[in-house]
Design brief:
Blueprint (H helix, E strand, L loop, with lengths): L2 H14 L2 E3 H8 L3 H13 L4 E3 L2 E3 L15 H4 L4 H12 L7 E4 L3 H4 L2 H4 L5 E4 L2 H10 L3 E3 L4 E3 L4 E3 L6 H4 L3 E6 L3 E3 L2 E4 L2 H11 L2 E7 L11 E4 L6 E5 L4 H9 L3 E5 L6
Parallel strand pairs: 4-5, 4-9, 5-6, 9-12, 12-14, 14-15
Antiparallel strand pairs: 1-3, 2-3, 7-8, 10-11, 11-13
Helix pairs in contact: 1-3, 1-10
Length: about 260
C-alpha cells in the first residue's frame, strides 16, 4: 500500500475515534508496525495528529471539537473571486428547476448562491453561509446534515459513518470544491472533511468538481476520490492545458470558462 493511502487511512481512523493504536492500524493497512510508527511520526511532525504511546490521537481545538486542517472561509473567499463566480455561473446552468442537488462547503461552491436561489431547488449543503443565503434570498428548500459546526470554515461536518439526513437524500448532481486536483484524484486537506464528503458522493448521480486554475498545483496528500469517480470538472481558462488533457484522458468532461475582466 502506498504511503499516501496509508496516511489517508490513519487520519480517517483518528478522525473517527479519540485514539487509535498501532496494532489497529497494522490490521487496517497490512503494513508493519515499524512502518506505521514512521507514518504516525511523520503525520505528528506536520501537525495532522498527535503521537501518543502505542498509537495516535486526534488534535483538538479550544472548544473541544476537532479542528479542521483547512483554511478559514474568510482567508480564501476573495481569492480568484472572478474565476469562482464564472465557474459557479456555468455550474448553475447545468441545474434544472425543481431538481435536488448536493453542494459541499467552500468558497467556490458558495458562489452558486446568486445563480440558484430562485430556482426552487432542494439543496443539501454543509455550508452555513450558502444555506443562510438561499434561505434569505430565494425559494430553495434547504437541508443541513448533522454534525459539528466549525466556525472558521463555516461548515457543518460529522466524522461519523452514519448520517440519516444524508442517507435519505438523493440528488441528481453533487457540486464540490477541492483543496487541489491531481493525477491521483481530487485532494482535500482534512480527513474529517473527506469522511463527510465521501458520504455525500454516494448520494448523487453526477459528481461535478468546481475548481479554479490555481487548484491544479501539486499540494496536499489526502485523496477524496480518484478522477474516475468524477463526471465533470468546471474550471477557468487559467487551468494548465496539460491538466485539462489529463482529466479528459481519465474520462472526465471538462468545461473551461472564460473569466470576464474585472471592472
Amino acid at each position: 500500500m502506498h504511503e499516501i493511502e496509508r496516511h489517508r487511512i490513519i487520519l480517517g481512523e483518528v478522525a473517527e475515534r479519540p485514539v487509535v493504536t498501532v496494532a489497529q492500524l497494522v490490521g487496517l493497512t497490512g503494513a508493519s508496525e515499524a512502518t506505521i510508527r514512521r507514518d504516525i511520526t511523520a503525520l505528528n511532525d506536520v501537525g495532522q495528529l498527535r503521537k501518543v504511546r502505542g498509537g495516535a490521537e486526534r488534535l483538538h481545538g479550544e472548544n473541544g471539537i476537532g479542528s479542521l486542517m483547512t483554511p478559514a472561509f474568510e482567508e480564501t473567499r476573495l481569492q480568484n473571486l472572478a474565476a469562482k463566480r464564472a465557474i459557479a455561473r456555468a455550474a448553475a446552468g447545468l441545474v434544472e428547476d425543481g431538481e435536488s442537488i448536493i453542494v459541499n462547503g467552500g468558497t467556490t461552491t458558495y458562489c452558486l448562491g446568486p445563480y440558484i436561489a430562485e430556482r426552487k431547488l432542494r439543496v443539501l449543503t454543509n455550508s452555513l453561509d450558502l444555506a443562510l443565503y438561499l434561505i434569505a434570498n430565494g425559494d430553495c428548500q434547504v437541508v443541513l446534515p448533522g454534525g459539528d459546526v466549525h466556525r472558521e470554515q463555516r461548515m457543518v461536518v460529522s466524522p461519523y459513518t452514519s448520517d440519516t439526513v444524508i442517507e435519505h437524500f438523493y440528488a441528481g448532481k453533487y457540486f464540490l470544491g477541492a483543496h487541489a486536483i491531481r493525477r491521483q484524484g481530487l485532494i482535500e486537506g482534512d480527513p474529517v472533511l473527506i469522511k463527510a464528503e465521501q458520504k455525500m458522493l454516494k448520494q448523487a448521480e453526477e459528481v461535478i468538481a468546481l475548481v479554479d486554475g490555481s487548484k491544479f498545483q501539486p499540494r496536499g496528500s489526502l485523496i477524496l476520490c480518484p478522477l474516475t469517480q468524477l463526471d465533470r470538472v468546471i474550471t477557468d481558462s487559467s487551468a494548465p492545458q496539460e491538466a485539462c488533457d489529463m482529466l479528459r484522458d481519465a474520462g472526465v468532461i471538462v468545461d473551461v470558462v472564460e473569466v470576464p475582466p474585472e471592472s
